[in-house]
Amino acid sequence: MVPRIVAHRPRRSLLPALAGLLGLVLAVLLAGCSSGPSGATGASAAAVSTPAWAHGMATVRESQLPAEARQTLALIDKGGPYPYARDGIVFGNFEGRLPKHQRGYYHEYTVRTPGSRDRGPRRIITGQGGEIYYTDDHYNTFRAVLK
């Protein structure tokens, strides 16, 4: 009897194919979870469109501001009365941290800081074009407020 020679094909490993598929699925999932470049914090930034005046700067949604800042915004919407004598005065933008405009374009309002004996460092700045900015460090940095 003649021995029969059986040629064995090497088995292809499924491991490299599965690893490639898993990598592709992971890449698609991660791309779909990206929050985008708008600088908004919290939930998806796509839910709030960024107005032209706020492009290129940090943003914060009105709903994410401290309660005291939201109260100040409500007073601004009503036209006062304001709790601080200096609320509504012209903000000079002397440091140039906001876009340049003529004097009188911006106005500032105090945001109460719990525990502070004076006006504290927090302010809302409004512009004549409807812009709203928030600072919690006495004009060192600003975030555009998105409604």
Automatic annotation (TrEMBL):
Q: Name one Pfam family in it.
A: Ribonuclease
Q: State the organism named in the record.
A: Streptomyces incarnatus
Q: What keyword terms does UniProt attach to this protein?
A: Hydrolase, Nuclease
Q: Which PROSITE patterns match?
A: PROKAR_LIPOPROTEIN
Task: Kindly indicate whether the keyword Hydrolase belongs to this entry.
Answer: yes
Q: Which domain of life is it from?
A: Bacteria
Q: Which SUPFAM superfamilies match?
A: Microbial ribonucleases
Protein's recorded name: Uncharacterized protein
